[in-house]
Every structure is written in structure tokens, then in C-alpha cells.
Amino acid sequence: MSQINYTLIRSRRLLSGTSVSVSPDKGVVVRAPFWMTEAMVRSLVESKSVWIQKHLSKMSPPKVVKEFKEGETHLFFGSEYSLSIKTVTSPGRTAVNVCDNKIEVEIYNGFKQNIHPEKIREALQHWYLEKGIAVITEKVNYFSEQIGVSYSRISLKNVTSIWGSCSPRNCLSFNQKLVMAPHEVVDYVVLHEVSHMVHRNHGKKFWELVQKYDPLYKTHRRWLKQNHHLLSI
Ligand SMILES: [Zn+2]
């Protein structure tokens, strides 16, 4: 039998009952009164193992929750950067700079400490969009030239369900989370949308065109399916 990992929350009350819950952000949580032994808790969990496994298997991997703290890892086109926070005395827009393997954020020291994470998140999101659109535009230009098509507009959007789209008027839009994915994966998404300017469907000819410029496209598509939870601002 496989061992189930759980978080145990003890109640100080003598007569409190026991409960087992499963959620995407907290995993398996067991509540039990203080006097129950570890062995009793373990056997309670084991007795519900079929139910727990059923719920665990239905859940997708937890979304990475960012706290915007010093030293936290943030992705930029697949590379890891550690967040470095500096406070400055001049008010104004929070500045973001990349230096070696660090993303440095300068934040006004007049802001209350409790709003720092939100201010840093806003600044990073702005920075991601600005840098992201530049990199993605270069990629779109490259593949459009290779394939011999021209687009009308590119935009990055805060969407959850799709990675990219190509309108009948050749307006291309991309999920802003792609700014965190590795270059080769973003290349695939860009190539996919640019290829739709030639073939408006997912037929055999469409995939042949994609494969011509990205022989590993299946690997890149799989990466997105398996790792999308890592990409969150
Ligand atoms: Zn498509």
C-alpha cells in the first residue's frame, strides 16, 4: 500500500472529532484531537485511502503561488532568476532590472510593508509584458518570414485556457504566461499560430508545416501540458 503524505492539525479540545480533507492547495489535511497517537491517525488515513487517492488523482498539480519575497525564484523564458528587493527613498513607479541571475526590484520605502508583495507583483507583471512582447514579436517576425506570411497585430493577454490564437484577420495573441516558458516551447506556440495563417485548421498539412520548422513540436506541446502550473505571475 502506498504511503499517503498528510498535514496533521491537532485540536486542543478533548472531544473534538477527526476529519480528513483533500484540496489542490493544501493536499491531504487531517484534523485530530491532541490525544490521538500517530499510529491512530495513520490508521485513520489508511482506512480512507481509496477515497483520498480518488480525490488526489482528479486534481491537477498545484499552481505555484508566488509570495514576492527576497530570494524567491522567478522564471523568465525558462531561466531561473532570484528575486532581489531593494527599498529606495524616491517615490514613483517600482523599477525592475535584470542583472546576472537576479531580477532586482526597487520599491519605495514609504509604502507600508504589507503592500510590498502586491506592488512587486504589479511591477513584475508590467515588466514581463514589456519584455515578453518584444521577444515574442521577434519570434513572430522570424517564423512569418520563413513561412512567407504577414500578420496584422500581436498582443499578449492574461488568459487561462489557451496559449495562442490567430484571428481570421491575422491578429495574433499569446498567453502572457509564455514569458516564463523555455524559448523552444514559446517558439513552438508562435510557429503554431503563424502556421494558422496558411492553414486555418489542425489538419495533416498544418502539422506537416509545424513539423518542418519544429521537428520536436510534440515534445514542446507535451511540456506545456505537463508544466503549465509552473507558469504563474
Ligand atoms: Zn491551433
List the helices and strands and how they pair.
Elements: E1 7-11, E2 19-23, E3 27-33, H1 38-47, H2 49-58, E4 73-76, E5 79-88, E6 95-99, E7 102-108, H3 116-147, E8 153-157, E9 164-166, E10 171-175, H4 183-195, H5 204-213, H6 217-227
Parallel strand pairs: 1-3, 5-7, 8-10
Antiparallel strand pairs: 2-3, 4-5, 6-7, 9-10
Helix pairs in contact: 3-4, 4-5, 4-6
Zinc ion binds at residues 192, 196, 202.
Q: What does the model show?
A:
It is built from six helices and ten strands, in the order βββααββββαβββααα. The protein folds into three domains: 7-58, no CATH class; 73-128, no CATH class; 131-230, 2-Layer Sandwich (Zincin-like), CATH 3.30.2010.10. It has helices at residues 38-47, 49-58, 116-147, 183-195, 204-213, 217-227, and strands at 7-11, 19-23, 27-33, 73-76, 79-88, 95-99, 102-108, 153-157, 164-166, 171-175. It has a four-stranded mixed sheet with strand order 4-5-7-6, with helices on one face. Strands 1-3-2 form a three-stranded mixed sheet, covered by helices on one side. A three-stranded mixed sheet has the order 8-10-9, covered by helices on one side. The protein is of the alpha/beta class and 233 residues long. A hairpin with a 4-residue loop joins strand 9 and strand 10 (171-175). The longest helix is centred in the middle third of the chain and has 32 residues, at 116-147. Zinc ion binds at residues 192, 196, 202. Zinc ion binds next to loops.
